[in-house]
Amino acid sequence: MKQPYRIVISGEGGQGVLSIAKIIATAAWMQGRTATYMPFFGTEKRGGISIGYAQIGEEPITVPKFEKADLCVALSQRAVARLMRYLKDDSVIVVNSFLVKDLTDIAKWKPHSIDAASIAREQLKKPRTFNMVIMGAMLKHIPGMSEEGFEKALEKAFKSKYEKDPALRELNAKAVSIGYQLG
Amino acid sequence: MSETTANNAAQTGGVQFDTAFPKCVRIESKPHLYCPGCGHPEVLKALGFAIDDLGIQERVAFGIDIGCSLLAWDYFNLDTVETHHGKTIPTMVGLKQSRPEAVAIAYVGDGGAYAIGAGHFLNAAIRNENILVIVVNNAVYAMTGGQEAPTTLPGMKVATAPAGADQYYIRAPEIVRNVNPTAFVARGIATVQPALRQIIKGAIQHQMEGKGFAFVEVLSQCPLNWGTMGDSKATFDILENKLAKAYPVKRY
Amino acid sequence: MGNEVLGRAARAAGARAMFGYPISPSSEIMHFWAGEAVSEQGKKDRIICTQAEDEGGAGFMMIGSVLVGTRAFTATAGPGHVIMQDALSMAEAMRLPVVVYVMQRGGPSTSTVIYSQSEVNLACFGGNGNGYRVVYSPATLQERYDYGIKVFNVAWKYRFPTFLLGDGYLAKMMGEVELYAPEERGIAIEPTEPYLLEDKRVRELEQVVPSPELQIRRVGGVEYACLRNCLNLEEETLAVNMEIKEAFDKAAVEIVEFEEYGPKDADTLIVAHGIVTNAAKEAVDTLKEKGISARLFRPITLRPFPEEQLRQAAKGVKRIVVAESAIAQLSRLVAYALRGTDSAPMAELSRPSIGIVPREIIEAVMSARLTYV
């Protein structure tokens, strides 16, 4: 039985961890795959633990919980410790190097370090696009996902935001591109 | 001519006289189940006459609580439901929201409204729910054997305060008036029928006109738990001199 | 997401009123319903969404609504579910068709808002009665929609409090669901009937409400119904309980649902419900790849429990493995169902308030195979 592609992403509440997981799952579904997304959060509304689980596959996915992930993403230093349990030998790791400085525990997995926050602020002039940069980097590793399909998912997720600020659309696309190249 | 008057007329050889019971009463359940000297039958009578006057017998949903109010479960020919303790008010709220044409009346005791049901009572008042709440206040938990109530007055000897109740008691009409400026709020007393009938009728009309929350507290006597059974002078002394002093009988 | 699916199911079923109190992980159901209540179509359909002061208020508002024939429901979880049982026990005693969506979360007490299967006892046997409620445990988002509709029809047809047992995972999960209108699938919507303020009923109240709790008089061509739940004599309450039992036992044969998965000749029987079903099915498949034969028995209704069907499934197996995210809530039902039979030993995989993955079930089966040969 072929297992779905499993992604776990963690960070602090407010960093958009769950949005990322949700958009990726939605993007996969819009491209005709099966996908499941499940959030986990603690009680704090900001700054608490936040973990998003996404699974992408060909068969219906009915077990939302899994033990090992194919792709692990850490947006904060604390998240690294949380993600250790999901690592298997061939897991791919992407980290937000702006906050994740200490890579000792995960060195052997050769994590992809991306300073998404600085890129968002300096190159894109919009700190909020930091999520998009991370997503671009993730996209690189998820099998069967295309940038075009991804754009469709972004359209759906940010419909009202794009209506208010159409420039955001291009900005997001650029952010995803940069992330993809660096991923 | 109502059934009851017709019956009475038959028994008195054709002489017609005004029945002592409202028309909407269920004659088969009489004599009622209340203790001799209890104030409930007086309140129920006033309620029944108000319903007769307004001609709304077919529209009333009569909710009763657990406590002595439950002895009225088959008192009337009205659609009646007995709920759980303190839950008559939310039941009537849900019913009225779902069927606005109904006249929803919650008939409860001081415990059901001011203790276990206080949260529901207060919130219904604040939200101006379009129901009528009648609280029969006899300053004691009667059916369960005379325990302290939120309206027991300081020094009154009750089963859970044998050395005398504490100095705290609740004046609900005053509270409701404070949280809801437009609610119909009044306090009546079981011993004055005509006024009670008028207050209840006015409270029902408040609901029927869609004006929101209507609340009538009625001071009532409980000779059994007051220890004044058989001594009506003592009973009414407590009711009219002690309770009515602490709890003003008036329209708020 | 899962909670939205339930909101849509209730809408599709023709539900009109929700009375509730926010509590994780069920609150999104109320958010959805509140949105419906203020929408164009919702206003036309006179949708009611009332946030009560607590679950007690919500439960009894729901009862008041049901009494005048409104298709009403609530949603709750954990400590809220505990409080709700006050109202649900009144509904149980008086045969009122309230519908409850329960999103199980950690327990006991506040615990986590995440997930568990620890509210089986509460849903099946909560309150101070003998457990005469109907309880469904769907396993997937699609089933949440299907049963989210069904609970209303079953409630109004058979007149027992009816539960849809969900959990925090299914509540928050997003996935693909096929939404449909019941008539597209030939599903008839059961009509509602008022208990109060109604003269013409298809089913007389005497056929529904236990007789000691009901007194009806006809005056001037109008029927007045008096309903109570407080009784005086032991004989009265015996009669109430036996009337409810008789009606439930009769309805049970029509209501009970279950599912089996895996080879018929397996000598290990796995029992699981709700979302754990899916991990159990994967375990069955993986075990087969390893050359080990196991079959899954899944109760879809926990009340009425498919006792006869489980007894059949358990015939001839060497061992039973019960997997649940609770301790002994499902396995107690299993043990009771198998009472008096010469059934196989039962091993319990109890993981209270935490998700179960296929590996854990596989290991439990392997271990049981070593223990119960």
Would you kindly provide a written description of the structure presented here, covering whatever features stand out?
The complex is a heterotrimer of chains A (183), B (252) and C (373). Chain A has 183 residues and is an alpha/beta fold. Chain A has one domain: Pyruvate-ferredoxin Oxidoreductase, domain 3 (3-Layer(aba) Sandwich). Chain A is 39% helix and 24% strand. Chain A contains 7 helices and 6 strands. In chain A, strands 2-3-1-4-5-6 form a 6-stranded mixed sheet, sandwiched between helices. In chain A, helix 5 (147-157) crosses helix 7. Chain A starts with a strand and ends with a helix. The mean pLDDT of chain A is 90. With 252 residues, chain B is of the alpha/beta class. Chain B has a single domain (36-246), classed as Rossmann fold (3-Layer(aba) Sandwich). Chain C has 13 helices and 14 strands. In chain C, helix 7 links the parallel strand 5 and strand 6 (162-167). Chain C is globular, with a radius of gyration of 21 Å. The A-C interface holds A 1, 22, 25-26, 29, 34-40, 43, 60-67 and C 113-114, 139-140, 169, 172-176, 275, 278-279, 281-282, 285-286, 289, 355-359. Strand 2 (79-82) of chain B pairs parallel with strand 8 of chain C.
List the helices and strands and how they pair.
The complex is a heterotrimer of chains A (183), B (252) and C (373).
Chain A: E1 5-12, H1 17-30, E2 34-41, E3 49-57, E4 69-74, H2 77-83, E5 87-96, E6 112-114, H3 116-123, H4 130-139, H5 147-157, H6 159-164, H7 167-182
Parallel strand pairs in A: 1-4, 4-5, 5-6
Antiparallel strand pairs in A: 1-3, 2-3
Helix pairs in contact in A: 1-5, 3-4, 4-7, 5-7
Chain B: H1 3-11, H2 40-54, E1 60-64, E2 79-82, H3 88-98, E3 103-109, H4 110-114, H5 118-126, E4 132-137, H6 172-179, E5 184-189, H7 193-208, E6 214-219, H8 223-226, H9 232-246
Parallel strand pairs in B: 1-2, 1-3, 3-4, 4-6, 5-6
Helix pairs in contact in B: 2-7
Chain C: H1 2-12, E1 17-20, H2 27-38, H3 40-44, E2 48-51, H4 55-67, E3 72-76, H5 78-94, E4 99-104, H6 120-125, E5 134-136, H7 141-158, E6 162-167, H8 168-172, E7 214-219, E8 222-227, H9 234-255, E9 258-261, E10 268-271, H10 276-289, E11 294-299, E12 301-303, H11 307-314, E13 319-324, H12 330-337, E14 346-350, H13 358-371
Parallel strand pairs in C: 1-2, 1-3, 3-4, 4-6, 5-6, 10-11, 10-13, 13-14
Antiparallel strand pairs in C: 5-12, 7-8, 9-11
